[in-house]
Amino acid sequence: MFASIPKPVRRIRWDWVKGVHTSVNAAGTSTCATAGLPGAALAGDTDAVSIIGVGLAALFSRDLTRLIQELEAFPSDEALWRRAPGVNNSAGNLVLHLEGNLREYIGRQLGQVGYSRARDREFALDGLSRDELVRRMGQVKELVVTVVSGLSDADLLAIYPEQVLEAALSSHDFLVHLHGHLNFHLGQIDYLRRILTEGSAVAFAGL
Predict the structure, then answer these.
(1) What pTM value is reported for the model?
(2) What is the DSSP code (8-state) at residue 43?
């Protein structure tokens, strides 16, 4: 567990986060932008903005971009729904599972964005096109980045609203868990694509 998240600071050094750039507009308001992150307006008092949240958002943005790259690398819609011998889930179903997971645990629980999850359908649906899955994951990426980058240090230190695992976790620690879950399935999707289509490695996006 991460027991000691730094306390909010008066002036955040955005250059501590790789790829983050700041500028001041004509109104005197600082703006922040990083690879995959929408510009975020910062008032003179930056106490509400967490550098840890911004860093987590950048990692989610990178890896959801990589997931979209994987989808685009499949040679056909049909290939997304094929199952390898001894493997229960198709790549398409794993993508739907990640969509439901992130919409529920980040969008609804932390962002208060309305969503009604039907987890069983994530593993039962099939036949959706690559374009449809890319569209959905693009929306998920925007949602996740917006919610996570807007969390304060107090939000991150607070106990996550629902006990999902065997022990209660802070929102920070549960976000780390969700990021690991995303990458676990991203790796599975990559190997399913390579095995089923004899595809090659994808030149993944960086931060």
Answers:
(1) 0.78
(2) -
